[in-house]
Amino acid sequence: MTDETNAGGDELPSVIVVGGGPAGLSAALFTAKNGLETTVFDTDETWMHKAHLFNYLGIGSVGGSEFMATARQQVEDFGADRRQGEEVAGVERTDDGFVVDTEEGRYESTYVVFATGANRDLAEDLGCAFTDDGVVDVGVEMETSVENAYATGAMVRVEEWQAAIAVGDGAAAGLNILSEVRGERFHDFDVPADAERVFGEAVAE
Ligand SMILES: Cc1cc2nc3c(=O)[nH]c(=O)nc-3n(C[C@H](O)[C@H](O)[C@H](O)COP(=O)(O)OP(=O)(O)OC[C@H]3O[C@@H](n4cnc5c(N)ncnc54)[C@H](O)[C@@H]3O)c2cc1C
């Protein structure tokens, strides 16, 4: 909320992610992990609750809801503010960013990432350009025709609806926001020594 829990900041750029499925949480992971104030709104209608993954590289078999529970925890552990159950009703452009309205309040941010699955209404209302196929028009960096507004996952794809692709789209959006903020191409590269710093004695082999 603008007065109490303002997601925007006077100094550091901030990010609002609309939709907490694989695409949105992946974007939030990158931006929160690398110091940007990040808020995720989600109504928990992700298709992942209907899925069981055998096709996510590096994971043999995992239930979709179990995958989401791990993802949510991971994003929270890196500092994102997850507002579960809070639906975004509208997103508007302002002079220096965006204002996001929910039933609970009004939030400001420098960047917005749409990750609302097959529902593209909010992006359309903001004025994002669509392709002839009826999906939000983005390139590999996931930025829409509206500056600093990104779109990711099922909403930018006609049929390639896979968790791994959504996660990749979200990562691309997060990384590109970080590059914009820092003014140079950003790489989120960690090395084994970082694992001990992050996880302490609970380091995985
Ligand atoms: C039956 C089924 C089986 C599947 N099996 C597989 C599989 O085996 N492997 C695989 O890779 N993929 C599978 N998928 C596809 C996979 O679930 C999707 O590709 C993936 O969930 C898309 O991620 P997303 O983040 O783009 O969208 P979603 O996962 O749909 O997430 C969008 C989120 O945004 C939220 N949201 C929407 N509007 C708002 C709003 N206004 N305010 C706040 N929150 C909002 C929704 O509640 C939802 O939680 C399956 C899908 C189905 C339906």
Automatic annotation (TrEMBL):
Gene3D superfamilies on file: FAD/NAD(P)-binding domain (3.50.50.60)
A GO molecular-function annotation: oxidoreductase activity
InterPro entries with a match to the protein in the record: FAD/NAD-bd_sf (IPR036188), FAD/NAD-binding_dom (IPR023753), Ferredoxin-NADP_redctase_2 (IPR050097)
Domain (FAD/NAD(P)-binding): residue spans on this chain: 14-118
Keywords carried by this UniProt record: Flavoprotein, Oxidoreductase
Keyword Oxidoreductase tagged: yes
Name of the featured protein: FAD-binding protein
Taxonomic source organism: Natrarchaeobius chitinivorans
